[in-house]
């Protein structure tokens, strides 16, 4: 008659086996854990499984803020640059342009820079906030003159010296030039946009400092060129967002970002297609 085996007794013999030690219990993999990662112990769960089991991410997805910021920059630089180059208008034209420049080129772009901070895009934060603040100041200056709250003599006039106003563009040229160098690490179109904007600011500063009409004209042409590039870059971001793939290439270093129909972004995602987290836009 078979004897009932006691706890811990070996099924193949009548001898008792040693009970499992606490170290052996700790080494056993957790139920459902992934296979061990290379270089880890055979009984330890993989790094991805540890991350997935212990990490909880609260997401607040936002669209690419630079879509709004680049459209705001394009609108302001197009209108002011064309006027500065002498393509239209008179000395009183800024008194009509300032509300649009203040709100669309200034406030909207400044807000886009703040949202760029949430997207963890340091370059977009710096450039949009800086140029948004400039267009707000530009709009306030001509707005105060237009309502009589500031003397007309404070308003800069093309072809006359205004060294104080020239210093506005000196600061813009230096900081935007640094942004152009940083943008080389992102894509070629953005670097070209900021380089054109920086050089245009430099010529505009020289035009108001000397004064020099030809320098102001060149600065105005470069501002218009910046507006065209901004329209292209903003449209590329907007179409990538709506179509879910690259439509207009922007010269990204990732090959998929330059091929129509390719994907220039590979976000970190949970399985089953749940949204992930990425840096930048």
UniProtKB/TrEMBL annotation:
A molecular-function term among this protein's GO annotations: acetate transmembrane transporter activity
Record carries keyword Transmembrane: yes
Keywords annotated in UniProt: Membrane, Transmembrane, Transmembrane helix
Pfam families hit by this protein: Gpr1_Fun34_YaaH
Localization of this protein: Membrane
Broad class of where this protein is predominantly found: membrane
Compositional bias (Low complexity): 23-42
UniProt protein name: Succinate-acetate transporter protein
């Amino acid at each position: 008659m078979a004897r009932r085996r006691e706890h811990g007794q070996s099924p193949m013999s009548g001898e008792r086996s040693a009970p499992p030690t606490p170290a052996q219990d700790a080494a056993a993999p957790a139920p459902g854990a992934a296979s061990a990662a290379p270089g880890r112990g055979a009984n330890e769960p993989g790094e991805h499984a540890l991350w997935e089991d212990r990490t909880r991410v609260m997401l607040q997805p936002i669209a690419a803020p630079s879509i709004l910021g680049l459209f705001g920059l394009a609108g302001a630089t197009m209108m002011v640059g064309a006027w500065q180059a002498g393509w239209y208008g008179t000395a009183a034209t800024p008194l009509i342009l300032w509300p649009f420049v203040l709100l669309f080129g200034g406030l909207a772009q400044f807000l886009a820079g703040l949202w760029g901070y949430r997207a963890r895009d340091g370059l977009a934060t710096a450039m949009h906030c800086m140029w948004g603040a400039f267009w707000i100041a530009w709009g306030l200056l001509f707005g105060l003159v237009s309502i009589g709250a500031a003397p007309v003599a404070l308003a800069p006039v093309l072809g006359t010296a205004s060294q104080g106003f020239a210093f506005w563009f000196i600061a813009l040229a230096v900081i935007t030039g640094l942004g152009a160098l940083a943008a080389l690490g992102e894509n070629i179109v953005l670097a070209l946009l900021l380089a054109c904007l920086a050089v245009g600011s430099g010529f505009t500063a020289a035009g108001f400092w000397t004064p020099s009409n030809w320098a102001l004209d060149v600065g105005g042409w470069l501002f218009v060129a910046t507006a065209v590039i901004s329209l292209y870059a903003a449209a590329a971001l907007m179409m990538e967002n709506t179509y879910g793939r690259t439509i207009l290439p922007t010269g990204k270093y990732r090959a998929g970002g330059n091929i129509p129909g390719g994907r220039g972004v590979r976000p970190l995602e949970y399985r089953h297609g749940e949204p992930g987290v990425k840096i930048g836009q």
